[in-house]
Amino acid sequence: MKKIDHGKLPQHIAIIMDGNGRWAEKHAFGRITGHRRGANSVKAVVKACREIGIKYLTLYAFSVENWLRPREEVDALMGLLDKYLRSELDEMLRNGIRLVAIGDIGSLSGPLRNMLEEAMEKTAHNEGMVLNLALSYGGRDEIVAAVKGILKDCQIGKITPQALTKELFSTYLYTADIPDPDLLIRTSGEYRLSNFLLWQSAYTEFYFSDVLWPDFRRRHLIEAIIEFQRRERRFGLTSNQLRRDGTYTG
Ligand code: FPP
Fold this sequence. Notes:
By secondary structure, the chain is an alpha/beta fold. It is built from eight helices and six strands; from the N terminus they run βααβαβαβααββαα. It has helices spanning about 20-25, 30-50, 70-95, 110-125, 140-155, 165-170, 220-230, 240-245, and strands at about 10-15, 55-65, 95-100, 130-135, 185, 205-210. It has a six-stranded parallel beta sheet with strand order 3-4-2-1-5-6, sandwiched between helices. Strand 3 (about 95-100), helix 4 (about 110-125) and strand 4 form a beta-alpha-beta unit. Helix 1 (about 20-25) crosses helix 2 (about 30-50), helix 2 runs parallel beside helix 3 (about 70-95) and helix 3 (about 70-95) runs parallel beside helix 4. The longest helix has 24 residues, at about 70-95. The protein is globular, with a radius of gyration of 19 Å. The structure holds farnesyl diphosphate.
């Protein structure tokens, strides 16, 4: 059996958890049951990432576009998030997992926001792994919010337009404190980015799995990591340049 090379782990894995609805249809359940089973995959993958030694895991749990789904489905997803935060907080504390979130967190309901903030506060000192939940997240909205922040800081004289670089721009994104993803996984056989981490995935390796998210488990994650480790990340350079300049570790 193929094994993970622990010296070449992706530092940051991002996942588009897709296929809950199709899983439910396939098994003649309602969509909400699909999401509930999807939450079990979340638990399994968080645990596996922590055990493998992944430092950052970002999960696309709810997009800005998802607000347009039927009311009952939105309510069920919010309920599952709430339940997840309540049931997993102790586990996060035990396993050194720090919870953070990206997205328009202000658009979540007061009680869910409070629960999220409490979990983030309680886990803030943990150093084992960062679990980053993308909630009410949209990549284009994130970029527009960053531009607005930059314009405001230019207006008040905190920065000048001339000082703007890609590095400074990145500090205005929701992900200011998080490195770009090395590996992005999308499940369910769809090949789209769906407004996820648009700026941050400029040099990310993409891995598409046919497995529907509720069926996704540790072994599928390991397959994705092994495939990532087979790839040569060149960041626009040539293979020869990378070999000469021994600093490349990706
Ligand atoms: C996409 O499947 C999935 C979502 C829109 C929500 C993801 C949510 C969870 C996995 C559960 C709750 C999350 C946490 C963090 C506890 P889809 O509904 O678009 O599937 P389909 O394309 O097959 O219809």
